[in-house]
Design brief:
The chain is of the alpha/beta class. It has helices spanning about 1-15, 30-50, 60-70, 75-85, 95-105, 105-110, 125-140, 145-155, 155-165, 180-215, 230-245, 260-265, 280-320, 325-340, 345-355, 365-380, 405-415, 430-440, 500-520, and strands at about 20-25, 90-95, 115-120, 325, 355-360, 385, 425, 460, 465-470, 475, 485, 495, 525-530.
């Protein structure tokens, strides 16, 4: 935000009006805060230039010296006064607010209708569409296909959750690329003769096959590994298979069927060999299991693709009938308008209104948002585009980051268009030195996408900091905790599982928080502010 405020100040001093510099962030709350920060920065610069004095702020000193040297101090003061008074007109928007402004203010160019009602929450439209798709698709299925469908796709609530990231724009590509649910289900019918053949063989020769699986020395019987070949589980599974194969199957086999396949035998194999496990019956079961797994995978992909497309169509129709437009629709409409026949005229109109754009928190920009700004300011007629963000946060997809969008933007901007902030204003000098020491050891590949996200050592700002002090001594700036190794059944030390490591880490952090708070109550732990060391 500090950088954005300074860049904004430079634009105003260069002669831009506050309404010409577009500043985009990603929430309404952030726009209000950002507008206040911009106003405060302009006011600080104005106060300095009006009194023609000096400042501890290095950037303001440089800007003031530039104005004095150029002899246009009065012009700068006049521009800043006008900007401070006109900040209510500043073009500071959320991404949705900007798209709405572009669609409505330039409705003739964008081809959008007038008087569309903004729908703050369209979730009920999506819920109704998905429910309708479920009724049309799942209800008519016979028992066998219904069981296969439920096993592959899950419940209605489950598929609604899976559809959430697919329903919003941009549309992701689903693999495998199948969308015909009926065609995939029909492939199950093609497996019924093979299942009937296996069932007849089981009824004829089941006792011998059971004995092979019960007596083999080549299969693990460990309960801890959840082996399907442990004695207790085999007895239960054999009973299930007897009931399933009592007549020719018309439904998918139960999970117990997996014990008859070479895939399961290979997974739970010991270092001994048993030629009886090479029986052609087991090989045939493996072929059918592989085919059924393929059907299940394709069925899930087809159901998601079909449901998403059906829901999109139904919701779009409902919005058209009601004259509604959701927040996400604004992005899609603007993207489509810029890509359409009137796109060049629309881009010209928007960029004449906002010649320069600044995108805050750019690491959270998705492909759709980037396409809009790219068409306006990179490929289009815009005068300037400033992308401000932390590339290391672009990996956080769970909170909206999109590393591949960031990589695409970086390639288009090029190395000459990049600048890195090298002064850290938030951390103590000791913390900055510690982080530099750790990551500088692998500076070229410190992060997964090292060719895009590199490590640049930072300097600590020369300012006062708050230090964590315990028993009158500074706590170390960086402490590395290690998790204990865990002995397996053979006594070998192994790293803990992910679940165990998570539990240990949570407990350790909680314990440390409690310890520090208890120390603070005793007066042994405190945050002490002092100048940089």
């Amino acid at each position: 935000t500090y950088s954005i405020a300074n860049l904004y100040l430079r634009q105003i001093l260069a002669g831009r009006k506050v309404g010409e510099v577009l500043v985009v962030t990603f929430t309404k709350a952030a726009t209000d805060e950002l507008r206040g920060r911009l106003r405060a920065r302009l006011f600080d610069a104005l106060a300095l230039l009006e009194r023609d004095g000096s400042s501890r702020d290095e950037l303001l000193r440089v800007l003031a010296d530039e104005r004095r040297t150029a002899g246009d101090l009065d012009t700068a003061v006049r521009r800043l006064r006008l900007a401070v008074r006109a900040m209510d007109e500043a073009a500071v928007f959320s991404i949705h607010g900007f798209c709405q402004r572009a669609l409505t203010e330039f409705a003739f160019n964008s081809g959008q209708g007038f008087g569309l009602e903004v729908l703050a929450d369209d979730s009920e439209l999506w819920r109704a569409a998905i429910l309708d798709w479920w009724r049309r698709t799942a209800y008519p299925l016979d028992a066998g296909k219904a069981r296969l469908f439920e096993a592959a796709v899950g419940t209605l609530e489950g598929i609604r959750a899976q559809l959430q990231p697919l329903l919003r724009t941009p549309r992701p590509e689903l693999l495998p690329a199948v969308s015909d649910v009926a065609a995939v289900l029909a492939r199950f019918d093609a497996q019924l003769p093979a299942l009937a053949e296996i069932g007849a063989h089981w009824r004829r020769d089941g006792e011998r096959l059971k004995a092979i699986l019960r007596d083999s020395k080549a299969l693990s019987r460990s309960k801890s590994s959840k082996s399907p070949f442990c004695k207790d589980r085999l007895a239960t599974d054999f009973a299930l298979l007897d009931r399933y194969f009592a007549m020719d199957p018309d439904q998918p086999p139960p999970d117990a069927f997996d014990a008859l396949t070479p895939q399961a035998m290979a997974k739970y194999a010991l270092k001994k060999q048993d030629l009886n496990l090479d029986d052609p019956f087991f090989a045939r079961c493996g072929e059918v299991r592989a085919a059924l797994d393929g059907i299940a995978g394709d069925l899930r992909a087809a159901a998601l693709a079909d449901a998403a497309e059906y829901a999109r169509t139904r919701v779009q129709q409902a919005k058209a009938d009601g004259g509604w437009l959701s927040y996400d629709d604004m992005l899609t409409r603007l993207r489509d308008a810029l890509a359409g026949p009137g796109g060049p005229a629309l881009a010209k109109a928007v960029t004449e209104r906002f010649p320069v754009a600044m995108i805050d928190e750019f690491q959270d920009t998705d492909p759709l948002q980037w396409e809009i700004f790219r068409r306006l300011y990179v490929d289009g007629p815009g005068t300037g585009l400033l992308l401000i963000g932390d590339p290391k946060q672009a990996i956080y997809s769970f909170r909206g980051g999109d590393i591949f969008t960031y990589m695409a933007a970086q390639r288009q901007v090029g190395a000459a268009g990049r600048a890195t902030l090298l002064r850290n204003w938030r951390s103590t000098p000791a913390v900055v030195r510690a982080v530099n020491a750790v990551f500088s050891r692998r500076a070229r590949d410190a992060f997964v996408f090292g060719d895009t996200i590199g490590f640049a050592p930072a300097d600590a700002a020369d300012k006062s900091h708050r230090y964590l002090v315990e028993d009158a001594a500074d706590r170390p700036a960086l402490i590395l905790w290690t998790l204990p190794l865990k002995a397996n059944s053979r006594g070998d030390l192994k790293p803990p599982s992910k679940a165990d490591a998570t539990a240990l880490a949570h407990a350790a952090v909680a314990d440390e928080i409690v310890r520090l708070l208890a120390g603070a109550r005793r007066g042994a732990v405190a945050l002490v502010e002092r100048d940089a060391d």
